[in-house]
Amino acid sequence: MYDRILSLISSYHHIGVISHFRPDGDAIGSTLALGLALQGMGKSVTMWNEDEVPARYAFLEGAELIQPLPEVVPPELELLICVDTGDWKRLGDRAVELFNGFPRIINIDHHISNCCYGHENLVEGGSAACGFVLYKMLRTAGCVITPAIASALYAAISTDTGSFQYSSTTPEVMQAAGELLAAGVDVGDINRRIYQEIPLSTLMVNREVLNHMVVECNGQLSHYTMPAGRKAELGISMEDTKDLVDIIRTVQGVRVSIIFEDLEDGRIRMSLRSKDPQINVSDIAARFGGGGHSMAAGIRMKGEMEDVRTRVLEAIREQLNQAE
What we know:
single chain, 12 helices, 19% strand
């Protein structure tokens, strides 16, 4: 599979690399790693995202090269590569409109729920991170893994494995991480920047969540709902709410956690996490048009908060009852 994708890439010179909106560490790291590697092969590469690079990843070398979407598809663009994006719509409304109908798309991903929307698809469902898939592909290609590429791949793999805490952290993943360190990753610096420094606004919203979280089902389910307008009251952005679900999932005895948040476009955003392999939150998310991994998934759907919240919580309770 790697050889076929690499052969196709070698046929083109002007290449675009893009990932999903509201990018996380895997999205940014994968975009950068592939983009920089392609540049090293002599390709003309443009990296895009519908949203800005989150502040916590802006230190990665080359992050400034990730551009806002253009107004029109560049006429010289020959190939578009989507990374860490399980569904075409996850690129964002503007990106979908812009690139709809583009004739040459490669989809490289690791989400079990990936719908294989590319003309060529390299999807390793259940793999630790898209960055891990790319690491193996770049090694197959014989690419030189520079310190910048290694740091991007390490950020991708580390963040999507919960800093190597999730069950997706296999011996092969740890071996890859070690090889990336040997290639020039400053592990102390990169971990400090990603995990040990947060804006004060993020700390304030963490306090909000802890004060208003709900724990039910005999301590097995934790959830929090961000009221409409509360972000404005707290003076926080969507970036500050990105990892809230990871706060409430740490409660001892909790098996499933979920955060509900109103978005400006009228949809409800939900982030789900499981700590129990018997509870597949990707299956729950799929019932409502979402997707992701067995232990981490997301949903975006239109509706009234109370109705959406009631329906999704009931689906989670059913799963908990069946898993007892």
